[in-house]
Amino acid sequence: MKFDASVSTYQSNSLISKINHNQRYGRTDAYFNACFEQAKEIWQLTAGAFDPTVYPLVNAWGFGPEKKDKIEQAKIDSLLAFVGFEKITLKNGKIYKSDPRVSLDFNAFAQGYSVDLVSEFLLSKGITSFIVEIGGEVYAHGKQGEHPWYIGLEQPVENKTSTNPLNVIFQLENIGVATSGNYRRFSIENGVKIVHHIDPRTGKPTSNQLLSASIFTEHCITSDALATAILVMGLEKAKVFLAAHPEIQAYLIYSDVDGKYQVYITPKLVDWIADQQ
Predict the structure, then answer these.
(1) What is the pLDDT of residues 165-188, one digit of tens each?
(2) What pTM value is reported for the model?
(3) Angstrom distances, CA of residue 138 to CA of 31, 52, 210, 219
């Protein structure tokens, strides 16, 4: 598939893998360019909470295609030296790095982008009523007859193998939704839960109250990237960010001081909750 051949870090011969390993690649393609530009926009919007150059740290913590490293503070500090989206630029189909060790990971939103690509294809064929879902990321367009499309968000119960009970159901029209959480991809080391969201500023897995973030925007790629950024921010910073960006709707599930599930929902999104009676 051309998409995977462009942006999959799990393919050693993909465009992004060649760029990461400083191999010959010719010129970047439309898929890569779209991901790069979207990543740059979200990186700027979130003040670095989202940063695709976190890839070396993702690998080091055991959540990438490469073998997990032994993690010590000195190792983290050495990797942070070449993490930072300001260290890499794209111009006229060519990538320029300030340090050859800088590498990219678009996995945090590539799935959302694939949803957008399928949606754009359907629209190009004149299909105006559909819902696309890939790996839990969703775009809903139009209606199903006289009714809106419905999606359910599951409870953030630690579960690596199957679906969880639904927490809420939303009715959607012309919107992309992505959820990122810390209850599926994680590992346990010495009794400590290590989650797969790495803070690009500290080099360590996130550790805050948030259990899951579901983000609603016009494009699934944007929702997908922002869901990751919100989890990195943590609850209080996320609230400030969302208040400053009313065009972004969010449903956040977090754990309170007593360990009970609580929900933060942006005001507009309340009206999208489906009547379940």
Answers:
(1) 677 899 999 999 999 886 554 444
(2) 0.87
(3) 19, 22, 21, 10
One-letter amino acid of 235? L
Taking CA atoms, 42 is separated from 31, 114, 227, in Å, by 17, 17, 11
d(CA 184, CA 156): 9
Alpha helices in 97-234 (DSSP H): 107-124, 220-233
User: Which residues are 170's β-sheet partners?
Assistant: 151, 273
What is the bridge-based pairing of β-strands 166-172 and 149-154? antiparallel
Model pLDDT, residue 163 = 64
Q: Tokens for 146, please give them.
A: 């006289």
Instruction: Give me the DSSP letters along 3-19.
Output: HHHHH-TTSTTSHHHHH
pLDDT digits (tens, 9 = 90+) for 221-239: 999 999 999 999 999 999 9
Q: What count of other Cβ atoms lies within 10 Å of the Cβ of residue 184?
A: 17
Whether residue 60 contacts residue 68, with contact meaning beta carbons closer than 8 Å, is answered with yes
**CB count, 10 Å around CB of 19?**
21
